[in-house]
Each structure stands twice: as structure tokens, then as C-alpha cells.
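Morning!

This is the sequence you dropped in the shared folder:
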Amino acid sequence: MKYLTARQILLIHSMVIDETGGSHGVRSRDAVLSLVSAPKQKVFDTELYPDVFSKASVLAHNIIKFHPFVDGNKRTGMAAAAVFLADNGYELSAKDGEIEKLALAIIKNKLDLDRIAKWFRRNATKAKGGTSHLARLGANTA
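The structure's back. C-alpha cells below.
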């Protein structure tokens, strides 16, 4: 399993803001650091988020709900989840507007983590291999 680093999440946020507008900036560095560990959490050696879709759901949910950035949290949450899925062999294949609808449902407390994971499972397809998403974007993923 490939996990995003804090540096990669910050890069994703910066790219989202550059592409779609808004303000750069981090409201809470601690919140960004917690994003890195959330998908890896275990209780008594049992993973809380056992598959790629549940890990993507906690990543999207936590960025959207905990607002670690000054602006663009919904966009960054969905982009980070998409990059995480791509780095782990899946591509989102949702129709236009569906990703935005998911982000809005998360912010309005209409979806729990299981329902978000089910959405990712339904709207992702196995990728055909190749380089990681961040590597293709020219980012240093180390």
C-alpha cells in the first residue's frame, strides 16, 4: 500500500489552488500531519481502514471535515483521495459533477466513512499500470 506523505498532500493542495483558484495556506500543520497517519490507524494490530477504498474515504473525509487548509478543502480532499487511489492501482471513473456531489454530501454530514468507501468502490476501476499520479505530475514522491 502506498500512502501519501504530508509533503505530497501539501503539493496536491497547492496544485488544486493553482488550477482552480482560491487562497494558498495551511490553517493547521498538525491537522495535515494527522492526515498522513489516519489511513494507517490500527487497534490491537487490526487496521481500522482495511482496504484502499476505506483508506481513501478517511483521507477525503478528514480533509473536507477538519479544514486543514485556508481554502480548497473539498477540492483537495477529493483530489488527495483520487491520487491515493491512483497510486494504489485505481482510477476514479465518476460522471461529471459526481465527485463534487460526494464532497458536498460529506460536508453536510450525509455520508459516514463506510458510505464514502462504497462510493469510491463503485466509482473506481482498476488502472492499467504505469507511473504513480504524482510522479506523472513531476512531483518528488520520496
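Headline: Strands lie at 42-43, 46-47, 90-92, 124-126.

More detail when I'm at my desk.
O.
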